[in-house]
Hints:
It is a single chain. The protein is an all-alpha fold and 56 residues long. It has helices at residues 19-45, 49-55. It has a domain at 19-55. The protein is 61% helix and 0% strand. The mean pLDDT is 80.
Amino acid sequence: MDQPAHAQTTRAAAPQRLLSLDTLRGFDMLFIMGFAGLVADICHLWPGGFSDWLAA
């Protein structure tokens, strides 16, 4: 049942995943699940230019 040495195939290396892309996808999923409302409510606690823009 053993394969001869010349019959072994080399396996291609798996491509590396981009950690930043995985992080972005996770963050997007949080917003889809309702995290956006929490961020908007927190931004209303500290009004200002950036928080107004973020809450919009």
